[in-house]
Write a structure and sequence with these properties.
The chain has helices spanning 4-14, 27-37, 47-54, 71-85, 100-110, 121-127, 147-157, 192-206, 210-229, 235-248, 251-257, and strands at residues 17-21, 40-43, 59-63, 89-92, 116-119, 160-163, 168-171, 176-179, 260-262. It has 263 residues and is an alpha/beta fold. α6 packs across α7. The radius of gyration is 16 Å and the shape is globular. Residues 133-137 have low confidence and may be disordered.
Protein backbone atom coordinates (compact mmCIF):
# COMPACT_ATOMS: atom_id res chain seq x y z
CA UNK A 1 0.00 0.00 0.00
CA UNK A 2 1.29 3.44 -0.88
CA UNK A 3 2.09 5.46 2.25
CA UNK A 4 0.18 8.60 1.34
CA UNK A 5 0.49 9.97 4.86
CA UNK A 6 4.29 9.79 4.81
CA UNK A 7 4.41 11.58 1.46
CA UNK A 8 2.19 14.40 2.69
CA UNK A 9 4.22 14.77 5.85
CA UNK A 10 7.49 14.81 3.89
CA UNK A 11 6.23 17.46 1.51
CA UNK A 12 5.04 19.73 4.31
CA UNK A 13 8.24 19.26 6.30
CA UNK A 14 10.34 20.25 3.28
CA UNK A 15 8.04 23.04 2.02
CA UNK A 16 9.67 22.64 -1.41
CA UNK A 17 10.34 25.70 -3.56
CA UNK A 18 8.47 25.12 -6.83
CA UNK A 19 9.31 27.28 -9.84
CA UNK A 20 6.12 27.85 -11.86
CA UNK A 21 5.81 29.19 -15.37
CA UNK A 22 2.07 29.47 -14.95
CA UNK A 23 -0.60 31.15 -17.06
CA UNK A 24 -2.02 34.58 -16.34
CA UNK A 25 -5.41 33.21 -15.28
CA UNK A 26 -4.04 30.73 -12.76
CA UNK A 27 -1.17 32.47 -10.95
CA UNK A 28 -3.05 33.73 -7.90
CA UNK A 29 -5.16 30.59 -7.46
CA UNK A 30 -2.16 28.35 -7.96
CA UNK A 31 -0.02 30.23 -5.45
CA UNK A 32 -2.72 30.13 -2.77
CA UNK A 33 -3.43 26.43 -3.35
CA UNK A 34 0.25 25.52 -3.10
CA UNK A 35 0.75 27.58 0.03
CA UNK A 36 -2.26 25.92 1.67
CA UNK A 37 -0.91 22.50 0.76
CA UNK A 38 2.45 23.31 2.33
CA UNK A 39 4.69 24.12 -0.63
CA UNK A 40 6.52 27.35 -1.49
CA UNK A 41 5.49 28.64 -4.95
CA UNK A 42 7.42 31.11 -7.11
CA UNK A 43 6.09 32.53 -10.37
CA UNK A 44 9.15 33.13 -12.55
CA UNK A 45 8.77 33.34 -16.33
CA UNK A 46 11.35 35.79 -17.72
CA UNK A 47 13.78 34.03 -20.04
CA UNK A 48 16.59 36.12 -18.58
CA UNK A 49 16.28 34.49 -15.15
CA UNK A 50 14.66 31.07 -15.44
CA UNK A 51 17.91 29.12 -15.82
CA UNK A 52 19.42 30.79 -12.76
CA UNK A 53 16.26 30.32 -10.71
CA UNK A 54 16.12 26.59 -11.45
CA UNK A 55 19.29 26.35 -9.39
CA UNK A 56 17.25 27.32 -6.33
CA UNK A 57 14.08 25.35 -7.06
CA UNK A 58 13.24 21.78 -6.11
CA UNK A 59 10.66 21.31 -8.87
CA UNK A 60 9.34 23.11 -11.96
CA UNK A 61 5.95 23.42 -13.63
CA UNK A 62 5.30 24.67 -17.16
CA UNK A 63 1.77 25.65 -18.20
CA UNK A 64 0.97 26.73 -21.79
CA UNK A 65 -2.42 28.25 -20.96
CA UNK A 66 -1.65 31.87 -21.97
CA UNK A 67 1.22 31.61 -24.42
CA UNK A 68 3.10 34.73 -25.48
CA UNK A 69 6.22 35.07 -27.66
CA UNK A 70 8.60 35.78 -24.80
CA UNK A 71 7.37 32.92 -22.65
CA UNK A 72 8.00 30.02 -25.04
CA UNK A 73 11.81 30.43 -25.04
CA UNK A 74 11.65 30.74 -21.25
CA UNK A 75 9.73 27.47 -21.03
CA UNK A 76 12.29 25.66 -23.15
CA UNK A 77 15.18 27.23 -21.23
CA UNK A 78 13.66 26.24 -17.89
CA UNK A 79 12.94 22.65 -18.98
CA UNK A 80 16.49 22.24 -20.30
CA UNK A 81 17.91 23.64 -17.07
CA UNK A 82 15.73 21.33 -14.99
CA UNK A 83 16.94 18.33 -16.96
CA UNK A 84 20.56 19.43 -16.52
CA UNK A 85 20.19 19.69 -12.74
CA UNK A 86 17.98 16.63 -12.28
CA UNK A 87 15.07 18.78 -11.11
CA UNK A 88 11.67 17.11 -11.65
CA UNK A 89 9.25 19.07 -13.80
CA UNK A 90 5.60 18.87 -14.77
CA UNK A 91 4.09 19.90 -18.11
CA UNK A 92 0.49 21.15 -18.20
CA UNK A 93 -0.54 21.23 -21.90
CA UNK A 94 -3.57 23.50 -21.46
CA UNK A 95 -5.81 23.61 -24.55
CA UNK A 96 -3.12 21.91 -26.63
CA UNK A 97 -5.59 20.84 -29.31
CA UNK A 98 -7.01 24.33 -29.86
CA UNK A 99 -4.33 25.89 -32.11
CA UNK A 100 -1.27 24.93 -34.13
CA UNK A 101 0.91 27.17 -31.95
CA UNK A 102 -0.11 25.31 -28.82
CA UNK A 103 0.47 21.95 -30.46
CA UNK A 104 3.92 22.97 -31.67
CA UNK A 105 4.91 24.38 -28.29
CA UNK A 106 3.64 21.35 -26.38
CA UNK A 107 5.36 18.95 -28.77
CA UNK A 108 8.63 20.84 -28.34
CA UNK A 109 8.34 20.65 -24.57
CA UNK A 110 7.29 17.00 -24.62
CA UNK A 111 10.50 16.15 -26.49
CA UNK A 112 12.35 17.50 -23.43
CA UNK A 113 10.91 14.57 -21.45
CA UNK A 114 8.95 16.03 -18.54
CA UNK A 115 8.84 13.99 -15.35
CA UNK A 116 5.04 14.19 -15.38
CA UNK A 117 2.49 15.39 -17.93
CA UNK A 118 -0.82 16.36 -16.29
CA UNK A 119 -3.82 17.26 -18.39
CA UNK A 120 -7.46 16.58 -19.03
CA UNK A 121 -8.55 13.76 -21.32
CA UNK A 122 -8.81 15.87 -24.48
CA UNK A 123 -5.39 17.40 -23.90
CA UNK A 124 -3.69 14.04 -23.43
CA UNK A 125 -5.38 12.60 -26.51
CA UNK A 126 -4.44 15.65 -28.59
CA UNK A 127 -0.84 15.54 -27.36
CA UNK A 128 -0.46 12.05 -28.81
CA UNK A 129 -1.87 13.20 -32.15
CA UNK A 130 -4.95 11.01 -31.76
CA UNK A 131 -7.55 13.79 -32.01
CA UNK A 132 -9.32 14.85 -28.84
CA UNK A 133 -12.59 16.75 -28.57
CA UNK A 134 -11.51 19.70 -26.47
CA UNK A 135 -13.75 22.74 -26.07
CA UNK A 136 -11.24 25.54 -25.69
CA UNK A 137 -9.30 24.57 -22.57
CA UNK A 138 -12.05 22.23 -21.33
CA UNK A 139 -12.27 18.51 -22.00
CA UNK A 140 -15.00 16.96 -24.09
CA UNK A 141 -13.59 13.45 -23.68
CA UNK A 142 -13.95 11.06 -20.76
CA UNK A 143 -10.88 10.06 -18.77
CA UNK A 144 -11.49 6.42 -19.73
CA UNK A 145 -11.19 7.42 -23.40
CA UNK A 146 -7.69 8.79 -22.78
CA UNK A 147 -6.21 5.80 -20.92
CA UNK A 148 -4.64 4.26 -24.01
CA UNK A 149 -3.27 7.61 -25.20
CA UNK A 150 -1.79 8.21 -21.75
CA UNK A 151 0.06 4.89 -21.82
CA UNK A 152 1.41 5.63 -25.30
CA UNK A 153 2.55 9.08 -24.20
CA UNK A 154 4.21 7.74 -21.05
CA UNK A 155 6.19 5.21 -23.05
CA UNK A 156 7.16 7.92 -25.54
CA UNK A 157 8.46 10.32 -22.89
CA UNK A 158 9.70 7.88 -20.26
CA UNK A 159 7.74 9.81 -17.64
CA UNK A 160 4.42 9.71 -15.86
CA UNK A 161 1.14 10.78 -17.46
CA UNK A 162 -1.80 11.85 -15.31
CA UNK A 163 -5.23 12.30 -16.85
CA UNK A 164 -7.50 14.23 -14.52
CA UNK A 165 -11.25 14.64 -14.52
CA UNK A 166 -14.27 13.08 -12.81
CA UNK A 167 -11.83 10.31 -11.96
CA UNK A 168 -8.07 10.39 -12.43
CA UNK A 169 -5.79 7.99 -14.28
CA UNK A 170 -2.03 7.72 -13.76
CA UNK A 171 0.39 5.58 -15.75
CA UNK A 172 4.09 5.11 -16.36
CA UNK A 173 3.35 3.22 -19.55
CA UNK A 174 3.29 -0.15 -17.81
CA UNK A 175 1.66 0.32 -14.41
CA UNK A 176 -1.59 2.23 -14.00
CA UNK A 177 -3.87 3.47 -11.25
CA UNK A 178 -7.31 5.06 -11.00
CA UNK A 179 -8.08 7.62 -8.31
CA UNK A 180 -11.77 8.04 -7.52
CA UNK A 181 -11.60 11.00 -5.13
CA UNK A 182 -13.03 14.43 -6.00
CA UNK A 183 -16.24 16.41 -6.27
CA UNK A 184 -18.30 17.77 -9.22
CA UNK A 185 -17.82 21.35 -7.98
CA UNK A 186 -14.08 21.25 -8.62
CA UNK A 187 -14.21 21.99 -12.38
CA UNK A 188 -16.53 24.93 -11.63
CA UNK A 189 -13.57 26.87 -10.17
CA UNK A 190 -11.18 28.37 -12.69
CA UNK A 191 -7.54 27.29 -12.48
CA UNK A 192 -8.00 24.43 -10.00
CA UNK A 193 -6.56 22.08 -12.62
CA UNK A 194 -3.57 24.37 -13.16
CA UNK A 195 -3.09 24.58 -9.41
CA UNK A 196 -3.12 20.79 -9.17
CA UNK A 197 -0.08 20.73 -11.45
CA UNK A 198 1.80 22.72 -8.81
CA UNK A 199 0.72 20.32 -6.07
CA UNK A 200 1.94 17.36 -8.14
CA UNK A 201 5.30 19.10 -8.52
CA UNK A 202 5.51 19.68 -4.76
CA UNK A 203 5.05 15.96 -4.08
CA UNK A 204 7.55 15.08 -6.82
CA UNK A 205 10.14 17.29 -5.12
CA UNK A 206 9.99 15.28 -1.91
CA UNK A 207 8.81 11.77 -2.82
CA UNK A 208 9.92 8.91 -5.04
CA UNK A 209 9.08 7.12 -7.22
CA UNK A 210 7.25 9.72 -9.36
CA UNK A 211 4.42 7.28 -10.11
CA UNK A 212 3.51 6.97 -6.43
CA UNK A 213 4.11 10.65 -5.71
CA UNK A 214 1.68 11.62 -8.45
CA UNK A 215 -1.00 9.24 -7.18
CA UNK A 216 -0.70 10.66 -3.67
CA UNK A 217 -0.95 14.24 -4.96
CA UNK A 218 -4.14 13.49 -6.90
CA UNK A 219 -5.75 11.62 -4.00
CA UNK A 220 -4.89 14.46 -1.61
CA UNK A 221 -6.40 17.03 -3.96
CA UNK A 222 -9.56 15.01 -4.56
CA UNK A 223 -10.16 14.38 -0.86
CA UNK A 224 -9.81 18.10 -0.17
CA UNK A 225 -12.49 18.66 -2.81
CA UNK A 226 -14.81 16.16 -1.13
CA UNK A 227 -14.35 17.80 2.25
CA UNK A 228 -14.81 21.32 0.85
CA UNK A 229 -18.10 20.33 -0.80
CA UNK A 230 -19.66 19.51 2.57
CA UNK A 231 -21.73 22.58 3.39
CA UNK A 232 -20.70 24.54 0.28
CA UNK A 233 -23.62 26.44 -1.24
CA UNK A 234 -22.01 26.71 -4.67
CA UNK A 235 -18.73 27.45 -6.48
CA UNK A 236 -17.95 30.61 -4.51
CA UNK A 237 -18.14 29.13 -1.03
CA UNK A 238 -16.56 25.92 -2.33
CA UNK A 239 -13.47 27.83 -3.52
CA UNK A 240 -12.86 29.26 -0.05
CA UNK A 241 -13.57 25.95 1.67
CA UNK A 242 -11.21 24.14 -0.70
CA UNK A 243 -8.22 26.23 0.36
CA UNK A 244 -9.08 25.53 3.99
CA UNK A 245 -9.51 21.81 3.29
CA UNK A 246 -6.08 21.55 1.68
CA UNK A 247 -4.56 23.20 4.72
CA UNK A 248 -6.45 21.10 7.27
CA UNK A 249 -6.16 17.68 5.63
CA UNK A 250 -3.80 15.47 7.64
CA UNK A 251 -1.91 12.35 6.75
CA UNK A 252 -4.17 9.98 8.67
CA UNK A 253 -7.27 11.25 6.85
CA UNK A 254 -5.48 11.11 3.52
CA UNK A 255 -4.37 7.52 4.10
CA UNK A 256 -7.85 6.42 5.17
CA UNK A 257 -9.82 8.29 2.49
CA UNK A 258 -7.69 7.73 -0.64
CA UNK A 259 -9.65 5.76 -3.24
CA UNK A 260 -6.93 4.25 -5.41
CA UNK A 261 -7.39 1.26 -7.70
CA UNK A 262 -4.34 -0.27 -9.38
CA UNK A 263 -4.81 -1.71 -12.84
Amino acid sequence: MTDHAARLDAMRAAAPLVHNIANLVSMNVMANVMLAAGASPAMVHAAEEVREFIGHAEALTINIGTLSPGWVPAMVEAAEAANATGTPWVLDPVGVGATAHRRQTAERLTRLRPSVIRGNASEIIALTGMGGMGKGVDSADAVTDAANAAQILAKRTGGIVAVTGAQDFVTDGTRAAWIDNGDPLMPRITALGCALTGVVAAFLATSTPPFDATITALAYYGIAGERAAVGAAGPGSFAVAFIDALYALDGKTLQHSAKVRYA
